[in-house]
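pipeline/complex-builder :: batch 7 item 3
reading input block
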Amino acid sequence: MEINVLFFGVLTEVTGTHRKHYRGIRSFSDLKYRIRDDFPGIENYNFRIAVNNRIVNEDPVLNDNDEVAYMPPFTGG
Amino acid sequence: MRIIEGPISPAAISEIVVRGGTNTDSGAHSLFLGQVRKDLIKGKYVKAIEYSAYEEMVMMEANKILKSVMSEFNDLISLEILHSKGLVNAGEISLVVMVTAGHREQAIKACAKLVELIKDKLPIWKKEILEDDSEKWKQE
């Protein structure tokens, strides 16, 4: 399946991008491994992951064209 | 909830105060203004903050927190949140929260609660721009 991945905050610098499109993703853990391979530095940061605007704690089932966001701790206000 | 490009102007702030005042059932407005602080970081002053947001999720989460605060306090009449995105200079306003209620006690408590929820729940990030143009992501 195809997945749109968004990076926010400091992770845009770690990855050098705000958005990356992945093809041929089989599962959420497959996606996580692909991202870790592409951007090994990302493992040094704290982040939470949202799928279609909802924070996920366990590995969710992904569907084609889902939007997955890598979000460092929020610092708004 | 509205996301504003750049600083929140005095005109925008007075507009929501005036609008709140049109409700004659209310006896109290509690207004919180968040300002960009000129912090000193390793000998350099912060001259601005650049805010970025996951806007779609901000709007969704904001609706949730507004609903939860409305249901927690029974004397509330209206709630309003404005938050900046993009560049806001030191001394300028980047967050406005206004709570309108029948009486002061719940207005003040609900306003404090909303500010904490905004910081905790909304996917917004700040990058400090220092006086020599170096940049530092705020980490909490």
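note: Chain A has a mean pLDDT of 96.
queue -> next item
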